[in-house]
Specification:
This protein is an alpha+beta fold. About 30% of the residues lie in helices and about 15% in strands. It has one domain. It has 11 helices and 10 strands. InterPro entries: 4Fe4S_Fe-S-bd (IPR017896), 4Fe4S_Fe_S_CS (IPR017900), QueG (IPR004453), QueG_DUF1730 (IPR013542).
Length: about 300
């Protein structure tokens, strides 16, 4: 029987080999502190039309409801910071959506990691999660020492900033747990001050229904006119709170070829986006997260910005 420490070490080594930025482990247990916070946030309707946020309340807080007999949550970060950005005079796309949809990229890596664990350690029951299931990924990542939750409610790391995806494996084996790190936001309010729609209503609390990412992706109806001239030319997602964060001066370019932008994506002008056809949309965003908003959604966003 191999030791907990040995198993923990080989998992972290394999995560590194698979290209993850970092890997941290926390004890799979009920998230007592999060329960009242989540309930309050939902009661204030800060999730807007994201009805799915109300579902599976118990699963969001208790990993054993997702993986029977779960003992450990393995949290992983994958860098997506690009080495070049869109031209200045363009409608903007969040950096995470420049290349192939991260769900596909990360799911493959997680499957490999789980397969490795089962091969090396023996019978291990586990499940992989990439923000498409009721898992509070930022909370688990913070518990496992991968960073702290910043005032903009994103996970932040002193070493690499915040331009990364978070994913988890919940497994039914005991591993060595990491300790949380301290908060290093201090008195800085750069993200709160810069948010174009004042969606960060207080430190660590984002009113999702005001967030540009929500308005351009999750919202299926028309964007309320009260947001006109506040959208800062974002047609899919928004990076403002991350762009202004001092810790992101430490961001380094990713080395995942699948996250490289589709040719021509970065050089398109506003006029070219305004004239985009469904055919071109399907070509450019064939395997992209931008497909979530659909062609009609992107056209709606562009015409809202143009008016």
């Amino acid at each position: 029987m191999k030791s907990k420490l040995h198993n923990t070490n080989i998992i972290k080594e394999e995560a590194k080999r698979l290209g993850f930025l970092s890997c941290g482990i926390s004890k799979a247990q009920f998230l007592e502190e999060e329960a009242p916070r989540l309930e309050k946030w939902l009661k204030k309707n800060m999730h807007g039309e994201m009805g799915y946020m109300e579902n599976h309340f118990d699963k969001r807080l208790d990993p054993s409801k997702l993986v029977e007999g779960s003992k450990s949550v393995i949290s992983l970060l994958l860098n997506y910071f690009p080495n070049e950005s869109q031209r200045e005079d363009s409608y903007k796309i969040s950096k995470y959506a420049y290349g192939t949809d991260y769900h596909f990229v990360i799911k493959e890596k997680l499957k490999e990691l789980l397969f490795f664990i089962q091969n090396e350690i023996g019978e291990v029951n586990g499940r992989a999660f990439v923000d498409s299931a009721p898992v509070l990924d930022k909370v688990w990542a913070a518990k496992s020492g991968l960073g702290w939750i910043g005032k903009h409610s994103n996970l932040l790391s002193k070493q690499v900033g915040s331009f990364f995806f978070i994913a988890e494996l919940i497994v039914d084996i005991e591993l060595e747990h990491d300790s949380p790190v301290t908060d290093h936001c201090g008195t800085c309010t750069a993200c709160i001050d810069a948010c174009p729609t004042q969606a960060i209503v207080q430190p660590h609390v984002v009113d999702g229904s005001k967030c540009i990412s929500y308005l351009t992706i999750e919202l299926k109806n028309e964007i309320p006119s009260s947001f006109s001239n506040q959208m800062d030319d974002w047609m899919f997602g928004c990076d403002v709170c991350q762009d202004v964060c001092p810790w992101n001066r430490f961001s380094k370019s990713h080395n995942e070829p699948l996250f490289n932008p589709y040719p021509g994506l970065l050089s398109k002008s506003k006029k070219e986006w305004e004239e985009i056809t469904e055919e071109i949309f399907n070509q450019i965003f064939k395997k992209s997260a931008v497909k979530r908003t659909k062609f009609s959604g992107l056209k709606r966003n562009i015409s809202f910005l143009k008016d």
